Amino acid sequence: DGGITQSPKYLFRKEGQNVTLSCEQNLNHDAMYWYRQDPGQGLRLIYYSQIVNDFQKGDIAEGYSVSREKKESFPLTVTSAQKNPTAFYLCASRGRDRNYGYTFGSGTRLTVV
Amino acid sequence: QQQVKQSPQSLIVQKGGISIINCAYENTAFDYFPWYQQFPGKGPALLIAIRPDVSEKKEGRFTISFNKSAKQFSLHIMDSQPGDSATYFCAASALGGANNLFFGTGTRLTVIP
User: Fold this and answer.
1) d(CA B49, CA B59)
2) Which chain B residue has the Cα nearest residue A48?
3) How many other C-beta atoms can be found within 10 angstroms of the C-beta atom of residue A100?
4) CA A107 to CA A34: how far, in whole Å?
5) Tally of helices (H runs) and strands (E runs) in chain B
6) pLDDT by residue (tens digit) across A8-18?
7) How far apart are CA B113 and CA B79, in angstroms?
8) Measured at the alpha carbon of residue A96, what is the angle toward residues A70 and A48, in degrees to the nearest 5?
9) Distance from the A113 Cα atom to the nearest Cα atom in chain B, whole angstroms
10) Per-residue pLDDT band at B25 (split at 50, 70, 90)
11) Does the beta-carbon distance from B46 to A101 stay under 8 Å?
12) What string of DSSP letters covers B10-59?
């Protein structure tokens, strides 16, 4: 089945540690996105990529980094510079047919311990 | 600046009642308006979407009403069921440019038996 896979589902990070969240899609979508969701809050855009080897900052990019070396993969690194990383992270993708909107992954819950 | 404004923030409806969630936008270039449904701990899933060339779209118990002149659109859930209890996000995007979706802040719907 086609879809987006995020891993791990739960992740624990120690203070000062970098962690990388995985996002893989087999939908042949060009665009991929990372969002952060805090409890009871909306979706805030971290980074997005419209094409391989290119990506753009979203509204809250500070303390995060991404890469887009393959069309299928868009990993997000939460660096030690992100002071409040505890949140639910969502990856999404979008194909060229805009009638189908975004497809979201099932999310990664990151907790600082 | 919030591109899409959503209300109410939370909504409690009796089983069998009608749930109504409203969204408003300013950017007249927006031409695609999807609604997403999110259950706790899961990623949002596309529920229904509309383009501005129609004033209403219905899929089962879910209806989008669109008012182009007022720049408003709303989601109506008929015969609301406890299983509809979730967070609902409206969104909008414009053809061209980055083609990103702008999300509302979400409405937490609770349907009580």
Assistant:
1) 10
2) B100
3) 14
4) 10
5) 0, 11
6) 999 998 888 99
7) 12
8) 50
9) 20
10) very high
11) yes
12) EEEEETTS-EEEEEEE--TTEEEEEEEEE-TTS--EEEEEE-TT-SEEEE
Query: Can you give the pLDDT at residue A100?
Result: 65
The answer to whether the Cβ–Cβ distance between B43 and A104 falls below 8 Å is yes
pLDDT tens per residue across span B64-108: 999 999 999 999 999 999 999 999 999 999 876 667 889 999 999
- Distance CA(A36)–CA(A50), nearest Å, equals 19
Chain B: give the shortest CA distance to residue A98, in Å: 8
State the Rg of chain A over Cα. 13
- DSSP bridge partners of B107: B88
Cβ B72 vs Cβ B24: under 8 Å = yes
Which pLDDT tens digit goes with each residue over A76-108? 999 988 889 999 999 999 987 766 688 999 999
Rounded Cα distance, A44 and A61, in Å: 10
Length of chain B: 113
